[in-house]
Design a protein that fits this description.
By secondary structure, this protein is mostly helical. The protein has helices spanning about 25-30, 35-45, 65-75, 80-90, 100-110, 115-135, 145-165, 170-185, 200-214, and strands spanning about 50-55, 55-60. It comes from Halobium palmae.
Length: about 210
């Protein structure tokens, strides 16, 4: 069955956006390929666009100056929002990524020393060492799953640089748990059921979070 896309009514003050299906908005197009959809919005409708996914209206910003305005110059005027916090709070807690206002400023002040030139140079050494160790396991002529190798390398670097721990024997467990968490985060905008409802997806998500906490 073919549905003819119709643009939802937009006010004069609302950013432009793609044609949308009645009752569905851009949900189908977004789910089909999120990256292609958001890229097309930026290319065809400008640096600020709007669209509806899962019954929620989203505003997409792609101009670097506008992004700096939101995140740095006038960040006090923009809230992260309940959806963003729902996606991350269970995993990272009430910290820098999810907090707002004065609490966020205190958190940012606490982590600022972590990003001095000296500390960043140390992170570079961690990254280089992990990359060299990964490359040393490769042999000429063999077939490798590069995605799996790079995912494992990323996990090792993050664990070592940010938490000071080695996860050599736990990369599969952590990687699988993160895959579940990321899938849950991507789908939360369409999920009309609360997180505590015993759906298969929620049960997988809760097990994954428990594995990461362990």
């Amino acid at each position: 069955m073919s549905l003819s896309p119709l643009r939802r009514d937009r006010t004069d003050d609302e950013p432009p956006g793609p044609p949308e299906l009645p009752g569905l908005g851009s949900t189908v197009a977004f789910l089909r390929d999120p990256l292609a959809f958001t890229t097309r919005c930026a290319r065809e409708y400008g640096p600020v666009t709007s669209y509806t996914v899962g019954g929620r209206t989203f505003y997409q910003i792609d101009d670097p100056a506008d992004i700096e305005d939101v995140l740095v110059r006038r960040n006090e005027l923009f809230a992260k929002g309940e959806l963003f916090q729902e996606m991350l709070n269970r995993v990272v807690g009430d910290g820098l990524l999810t907090s707002e206002g004065a609490f966020w400023r205190r958190q940012r002040h606490l982590v600022q020393p972590t990003f001095t030139p000296e500390r960043l140079a140390a992170y570079g050494e961690v990254m280089t060492g992990a990359a060299e160790a990964t490359a040393a396991r490769w042999s000429d002529g063999e077939t490798r799953d590069v995605h799996a190798d790079m995912s494992e390398l990323t996990l090792k670097i993050v664990a070592s640089a940010l938490f000071g721990v080695e996860i050599e024997d736990q990369t599969d467990v952590v990687g699988d748990a993160l895959d579940v968490v990321m899938a849950r985060s991507e789908g939360v905008m369409l999920d009309l059921l609360p997180e505590w409802s015993p759906t298969p997806g929620n049960r997988r998500y809760n097990r994954a979070v428990a594995a990461l906490d362990a």
